[in-house]
Amino acid sequence: MAQEDVFKKLVSHCKEYGFVFPSSEIYDGLGAVYDYGQMGVELKNNLKKYWWDSMTLLNDNVVGIDSAIFMHPTIWKASGHVDAFNDPLIDNKDSKKRYRADVLIEDYLAKLDEKIDKEVAKAAKRFGESFDEAQFRATNPRVLENQAKRDEVHARFAKDLNDANFEDLRDLIIECEIVCPISGTRNWTDVRQFNLMFSTEMGSTADGAMKVYLRPETAQGIFVNFLNVQKTGRMKIPFGIAQIGKAFRNEIVARQFIFRMREFEQMEMQFFVRPGEELDWFAKWKQARLNWHKALGLGDQKYRYHDHDKLAHYANAATDIEFEMPFGFKEVEGIHSRTDFDLSQHEKFSGKKMQYFDPELNKSYTPYVIETSIGVDRLFLSVLAGSYCEETLENGETRVVLKLPAQVAPVKLAVMPLVKKDGLPEKANEIINDLKFDFRCQYDEKDSIGKRYRRQDAIGTPFCITVDHDTLNDNCVTIRFRDTMLQERVPISKLHDIISEKVNMKSLFKKISE
């Protein structure tokens, strides 16, 4: 099945089963804004808990805060967002559609990568076990031609971004014959910049109102509270401050479902270190964050690093962790070495000292910062995309199943009486009343047992418990495992231990720590 079709099915599945709804749908919706349904909010909260606990429990030098969405407007002047928080945009004159110029070129580069990979895959199939991929990539004329073209475009693209050379960026789009997906033409406008911040006014009267911004990132709330946390928590460098919160960006080219939205949620951790040690810490956090993602078990091959072509002016290293979405490898988390830019800027604009006295070195300095930043919504989408499966069973039937990591699944178990009589519903509710304090449970008695299994498969429930007439005599139930569909007869008294072993986040934390 084409990946585009998979993505459409995933979007439809999210709505049908209560994961994600278009916001304000009864009023025809609001562009690039979505609501999380009853299943989605549980999955999202579980992912946030996985991140929060891994940060604050596994690292004794990382603590959390929750800063306000509204902040003093000078903060955004100091951070550079007022003057430099822009996207390079380009319009197609025929379709009247607007695009990010950098995304158009990145998509073009991805197509060249795809061509190369297809050549390699064909050769691997043709030569079998004797295939030498490295030699093929180094000698095959078609691969070399596409690789040379890719390298040339990539080098020029990176230079244009770093130099803010928007005229050449447009020329590159024309020369690569990149067309508008809607009109199919290359009738492009000039590339120009657009500031992404939402602004509003704070104050009781029009004359006394102050212009403020909805925060475009959560990081600045951490930086302005650096000394508050350090002093009240008696924190010693190196240490980190973590935060989960909403951020807002007026994305002109919002697309791909919840991947790029105007209101979104971030999980960020700023790690403060001694100057000169930042690149060592950058390498450590880069590896630690990749381990965190891989522990979810969606497939190690679905992740890769992507080093930034264009470094922010304040950074000396930056890498994305990308996940293979149905529409290609895309960023889910960024790791950045931000130097001392943020604290120095806030010291300059506020007039307050933002330095740390290091008792071991017996001197004060402005700490350097390593940032890890995840988009919660992108993580949510990656987990759903990595879990979505359509399977053909031995009897010819098909099933749609979300093979979600059991630890983050919205519902951990469903309890089903075989029939709605003979005391079976009462026994099923008795089991739920015993387990509901530790696990989110569902009771389901409608339709055949097969249809009930399919419903639970579709929302990713790891365990289904069937109560039958024998249960009333032997106090045993049938537990059915989602991924394998295997069924096992077990005593009710052992249910808690069986489920707890699989859904407890300790198992994920142990994988990270290995």
Automatic annotation (TrEMBL):
Q: What is this protein called?
A: Glycine--tRNA ligase
Its localization reads:
Cytoplasm
Which EC number applies? Answer: 6.1.1.14
Chief localization class?
cytoplasm
Q: Which residues form the Aminoacyl-transfer RNA synthetases class-II family profile domain?
A: 177-417
Check the record and name the Pfam families matching this protein.
HGTP_anticodon, tRNA-synt_2b
Recorded source organism is Parabacteroides chartae
Coiled-coil region(s) at which residues? none
Source domain of life is Bacteria
Subunit text: Homodimer.
Task: Provide the binding site for substrate.
Answer: R100, E217, F264, E265, Q266, M267, E268, E371, T372, S373, I374, G375
Molecular function, one GO term: ATP binding
InterPro entries given in the database record: aa-tRNA-synt_IIb, aa-tRNA-synth_II, aa-tRNA-synth_II/BPL/LPL, Anticodon-bd, Anticodon-bd_dom_sf, Gly-tRNA_synthase/POLG2, Gly_tRNA_ligase_bac, GlyRS-like_core
What functional role does this protein have? Catalyzes the attachment of glycine to tRNA(Gly).
Assigned GO CC terms:
cytoplasm; extracellular exosome; microvesicle
Q: Which family does it belong to?
A: Belongs to the class-II aminoacyl-tRNA synthetase family.
